[in-house]
Design goal:
Spore Coat Polysaccharide Biosynthesis Protein SpsA, Chain A; nine-stranded mixed sheet; two-stranded antiparallel sheet; 21% strand
Length: 336
């Protein structure tokens, strides 16, 4: 029997029962209903699996439920969803999001707007402050520092156009399935965090483009699973930052920029230890350095597959002074 769905939506879940009724209700209200939901449960101890099965049945949502006995991490679980997907387009959607009714329709419209579009970013708004943007995709500077593009800016609900950006946030990003398969999906060694930056970087080097669709709007409860202050998250961010640059930075730039990259990282780690006693970020960087041997074969593969350096280079953001980097993340601080 032929498969007629336009898109596969992959939702990863870990003890996220409290988010699921609202998420599924919003998916059921989409103006485009030709989608399958691939729900990957990463070893939840609540009744998420039963809830999603019953709710999808009541809403008439086509459900593919994948149950892992333990937490495999974000990257590996998303890859499970990718390999189970049957549509040409795949959305990676966080379980703590609430998409507006036209969200999926607008993503698909953008996907067909330009040639070589392999990624489309949603406009993610802060759930507790919907007038403020949480993320409009990924920005990356020349030291490999990544942050939420337009994060913290005030939302313009009438914003139009389809600007091209570095890549989508993996919390609500649309991807061409074949592109992801050709690139090997998310890097599972990352476990969680920055795997979307890594994929977007590799995709750009391979000649793929990313558009930002401001009309694809979704509310997001940022870091609802591990939390922004989690030592686990800070460790993973520190480790994965090292691997991100080591894998993907083309050789001429890596040779020229490595003192700057190391300098910015040393200042960031030093500030975290001095101001917050944050040794998790330091441990993450050290783990990243210790793991460079396993990263180097991946680097060789990425660099050998480059087809369009300019497609990557022109979307790298300029450097700012080290003391100005923190301003990129002020929107992530909890509201008083």
């Amino acid at each position: 029997m032929s498969f007629h769905k336009l898109v596969s939506i992959v939702v990863l879940n870990l003890n996220g029962r409290r988010h699921l009724p609202a998420l599924l209700a919003h998916l059921a209200q989409q103006t485009v209903r030709e989608f399958e939901l691939i729900f990957v449960d990463n070893g939840s101890q609540d009744d998420s699996r039963l809830l999603v099965s019953q709710t999808c049945r009541s809403f008439g949502i086509d459900l593919n439920l994948i149950c892992n006995p333990q937490n495999l991490g974000f990257a590996a679980a998303c890859n499970q969803g990718l390999h189970a997907a049957r549509a040409d387009w795949v959305v990676m959607l966080n379980n703590d999001t609430l998409p507006e009714p036209a969200w999926l329709e607008q993503l698909l419209n953008a996907a067909h707007a330009e040639p070589r579009v392999g990624m489309v970013a949603s406009k993610m708004l802060k759930a507790h402050c919907p007038v403020q943007i949480d993320s409009a995709g990924i920005a990356v500077d020349w030291t490999g520092i990544a942050w939420d593009w337009q994060g913290g800016e005030r939302d313009d609900p009438h914003e139009g156009g389809l600007p091209e950006i570095f890549g989508p946030c993996g919390g609500a990003g649309l991807y061409a399935r074949q592109m992801m398969l050709d690139l090997g999906g998310f890097d599972e060694d990352f476990f969680a965090y920055m795997e979307d930056v890594d994929l977007a970087w590799r995709a750009r080097l391979a000649g793929w483009r990313c558009l930002y669709q401001p009309r694809a709007r979704v509310l997001h409860a940022h870091s609802a699973t591990l939390g922004d202050a989690s030592p686990v998250k800070r460790f993973l961010l520190g480790r994965n930052k090292v691997w991100l640059v080591a894998k993907n930075m083309p050789t001429p730039w890596l040779l020229g920029l490595w003192p700057t990259i190391v300098g910015y990282d040393a200042l960031a780690v030093g500030y975290g230890v001095a101001q917050r006693g944050d040794f998790a970020s330091l441990r993450g960087r050290l783990a990243g350095i210790c793991g460079l041997r396993q990263v180097w074969p991946k680097r060789r593969a990425v660099q050998a597959a480059i087809v369009d350096i300019e497609n990557w280079r022109r979307f790298m953001s300029p450097l700012v002074a080290p003391w100005a980097v923190r301003a990129r993340y002020t929107h992530l601080k909890p509201s008083a």
